[in-house]
Structure formats: structure tokens, C-alpha cells
Known about the structure:
Strands 2-1-3-4-5 form a five-stranded parallel sheet, sandwiched between helices. 39% of the residues lie in helices and 16% in strands. Residues 18-26 have low confidence and may be disordered. Helix 2 packs parallel to helix 3. With 152 residues, it is an alpha/beta fold. The protein is elongated.
Amino acid sequence: MxxxxxFVLTLPLAAAPPDNIGRGTTExxxxxxxxxxxxxxxxxxxxxxxxxxxxxxxxxxxxxxxxGIEEVRARAxxxxxxxxxxxxVNGLEVIRSVRxxxxxxxxVALTGYAQLQDRELALAAGFDAxxxxxxxxxxxxxxxNEVARKKH
Length: 152
């Protein structure tokens, strides 16, 4: 009795996070953009929306291709980030419809379809950029910063 062991675990304090969290390696964001994410995976959409909101972007999410098309027509975002594998109409159909309606929104295909031919199909359909899931945040921020620069 009275026998036993006592364990003490001491952890160091973590360093403060950098001020540019969510910005990748790109120097500061020039301005806030309105961004529409069209993604049927709720967790993926929420995570990406939260990351973009950290950089003060105004973010909306649509869970279907048809809802995304309507959002672009109704609110004309600066940037459209669209999955290709959607349940109702695929992302290629979304961008074709958006372009046919005359929208010049900067459109990014964000997809698991990441082969060279998938990229070529996305760009030929009307997307301005193609990123594989999960996106490299530095590359996404580079794209957003370029759109912001052109906006001003």
C-alpha cells in the first residue's frame, strides 16, 4: 500500500503564431475580395471559407452547381472557386453557364481531378486557374492577390 508512480509532464510554451496566418508566403493582401465557393462537401467548403475569412475576404458558399450559377448572377463575386465534381451539374457546366451569361468573374477550378487533361479541360471550359485539392495556400493566396491587384 502506498506504492505507486507519479508522472510529471512539462511542456514548453509555443511561440506566438505569425501575423500572416492564412496568407501563405505572399506579402500582404491588397484588398478584400468577394469570393464564392461552390463545393458540395460541407466540411471542405467551411474550412476554405474560414481560411479566406481570416484574410478579411467576404465569402459565400453554395452547395450545388445551380446555386452557384444563381449566386454569380445575383451578386457578381470577384472570385469563383468551384469544385468540378458537383452532384447536380458539374463544375465545367457551371463555368460554361456563367461565361455564357457574360460574367467575367475570375474562376478557379478546385478539384480532386488533377491530371493534366483535367486541367486542360477546366481551362478550355472557361476557368482562369486550376488547383488540385487540397489547395496549396500559398498558391491560392498568390491567385487572390493577383485578382486584387487587377481590381485596383
